[in-house]
Amino acid sequence: MSVALVWFRRDLRLRDNPALQAAIEAGHTPLPVYIHAPHEEGAWAPGAASDAWLHQSLQQLDADLRARGSALVLRRGDSHAELQALIAESGAQAVYWNRKYEPATQPRDAAIKRGLREQGVHAESHNGYLLFEPWELATQQGGPYKVFTPFWRNALGRWRLAALTEAPSRLPGHGLQGLPLQALQLAPRLHWDAGFWAHWQPGEAGAQEALDVFTDGALNGYREQRDLPDRTGTSLMSPHLHFGEIAPWRIVHALERLRSAGRDADIDGYVRQLGWREFSWHLLHHFPQTSDSNLNPRFDTFAWAPPRAELLGAWQQGRTGIPIIDAGMRELWATGYMHNRVRMLVGSFLCKHLRMHWKEGARWFWDTLVDADLANNSMGWQWIAGTGADAAPYFRVFNPVTQAQKFDPHARYITRWVPELAGLPVKARFAPWLSPSLLAEQAPTYPAQPLVDLAQGREAALAAYHRCR
């Protein structure tokens, strides 16, 4: 039987894997390989939290393959060169993979496909990551969308879910040797990620468990509870989606089976969030500069404040003196994750109250989030800053105190992540600087004043916006 390399990348699963399925259906013996090549990711090589998750996910994928008689072959180096070496060692006649869509990896993959075909090796790529390819949906004029609502309307009009495919029960052995996982140097040496794994289970089984927990629990009332950070009101599927441990269409299939008169609104609300993921990749494909540059060029002259290391460091460490901001940044450091509503608040505070460039926040999230995704990260920060497509207007400046009072009314989220404030009355935990004596008595280690007066920070941001306009 002929051999085909199945090149795993951002599709670390055996179910619903179009590349693996195509290799099997073509009659090949699949040889699963993973090539570690962060230098080929351009300026956005994966961050430390992503690497920590990847280590765990590769370990789980290898275990899943071994349980079926195969194994994952690990290599590191230049992708094309390593594929050539694997072809020579195995006699493979074909290479199958699922597409990646980052600006740095798309041209690389196209060059690899051309090179393989020129030497007579069958090379085939598939969509294993998205509901729609980034180039599939276009405006009536044939251009890309910059506004979500018409994009999503078009998507729903062309809605066709891929069929589900189960993992093969057995796979042939291959005997090819690779590197030990430790050689990829993904796991942190100082084990600063130890706290992550009380919250997460990387791998395909962990993804399915997270989906089951969501459909049994947080899906009920999702639209009302998804903005409340003090409870599990969201799916927590984002890192599993990012690493391709579950296909988005499997999630939708699972939700569609649960439709009833009382759940349709929650299901539609969640599927719409998957639509934002699709929209972000659509934007990055058509506007690849948006990971580093403003999509709206008007903001190229915006008067960002000069970088100040002490302010940025206080924001990163959760020492701003504003409890909801500090709670979010501490949650991020402890778990590799932050609730979406709080992401908007910490981003708005950085970009507007402190008036620091959105790239400062994007880089920090990129290094510390386990679901760091170039398209979502870029779109999210530009949305917050008001510089991107379908963005929040720059003059919309979230007040973190009133937002906390609205979405964390009992200060449970604040108290969990900023426990030194637990001795204060609930009302004082939202703006403790307004109760200075009580703060000094109950939480002497917490900042006595916020980094910036919220009213003054807002006015400075609006003044800079008006000058730019």
From TrEMBL:
Keyword presence, Transport: no
Enzyme nomenclature, EC number: 4.1.99.3
Entry-linked InterPro entries: Crypto/Photolyase_FAD-like_sf, Crypto/Photolyase_N_sf, Cryptochr/Photolyase_FAD-bd, Cryptochrome/DNA_photolyase_1, DNA_photolyase_1_CS_C, DNA_photolyase_N, Rossmann-like_a/b/a_fold
Residue ranges constituting the Photolyase/cryptochrome alpha/beta domain according to the UniProt record: 2-131
Highest taxon of the lineage: Bacteria
Signal peptide bounds: none
Pfam families attached to this UniProt entry: DNA_photolyase, FAD_binding_7
Keyword Transmembrane: no
A molecular-function term among this protein's GO annotations: deoxyribodipyrimidine photo-lyase activity
CC cofactor: (6R)-5,10-methylene-5,6,7,8-tetrahydrofolate; FAD
Gene3D superfamilies: 1.25.40.80, DNA Cyclobutane Dipyrimidine Photolyase, subunit A, domain 3, HUPs
Coiled coil regions, renumbered to chain: none
Keywords: Chromophore, FAD, Flavoprotein, Lyase
Family affiliation: Belongs to the DNA photolyase family. Belongs to the DNA photolyase class-1 family.
Protein name: Deoxyribodipyrimidine photo-lyase
Species per Swiss-Prot/TrEMBL record: Stenotrophomonas capsici
